[in-house]
Design brief:
By secondary structure, this protein is α/β, with parallel strands linked by helices. It has a single domain (2-74), classed as 3-Layer(aba) Sandwich (Rossmann fold). It has helices spanning 10-21, 34-42, 56-62, and strands spanning 2-6, 26-31, 47-50, 71-74. A four-stranded parallel sheet has the order 3-2-1-4, with helices on one face. The mean pLDDT is 96.
């Protein structure tokens, strides 16, 4: 399955690791904080996307995805 996680804070980064552990094909995480995106990469994200600089549709095409994500997790906070 292809997983989209919005929010690369501590909970989002843990969701990356869990998604990888259970066998997700692609784990894509989005945020605007470079430090958090790098942490998500280290936790195993297939792609960590800075949505202020990249379009998610282009990342999906890069990964060979022709349909949407199978699982979506909203992990962003308020601050």
């Amino acid at each position: 399955e292809d997983v989209l996680i919005t929010g690369a804070g501590p909970i989002g980064a843990m969701a990356v690791a869990i998604s990888q552990f259970v066998g997700a094909r692609h784990v894509v995480i989005t945020d605007v904080n470079p430090y958090r995106l790098e942490l998500a990469r280290k936790m195993g994200a297939t792609r960590a996307v800075d949505v202020s600089r990249e379009k998610l549709s282009e990342v999906m095409a890069e990964l060979g995805m022709t349909e949407g994500f199978d699982v979506g997790m909203e992990m962003s906070g308020s601050g």
